[in-house]
Design goal:
mainly alpha; Substrate Binding Domain Of Dnak, Chain:A, Domain 2; 5 helices
Amino acid sequence: MKSFFLFLVAMAITTMGMFQPAMSQTTSEIAKGNTKHCADVCQKTLDYCVKKGGKHSEASVTNSLKDCIQACKSAFDFLNRGSAGLQGKSCALAVQACNECAKTMDAFSGDNTMLACANECRKTVGNCEKLVK
């Protein structure tokens, strides 16, 4: 009876997907996750900048964040749909917008929110560059 119970537990664990090897993600899937997360982080940073005011809310800063948000959202959408002809182009735009945004955020060297945003942008660049053709 005990062995039958252990068998049932093992089957339940296997059926639920536990203890199965993780499937590796494709470059496209990783970039898709990066672009979504980057857009989210940039949106939170934009909200922070508007609330903080001063140099944080200057047009050059907020526009850089808005550009990155839009480019990452567009790249995410093309990647999500598997739009073969547009994935590379949209990722190229996201790379450019993320690089500009990271550069802008780096100017706020003592602000952890801004630096975290810059780092997220750089991570997105690293993975999206692999899809640029």
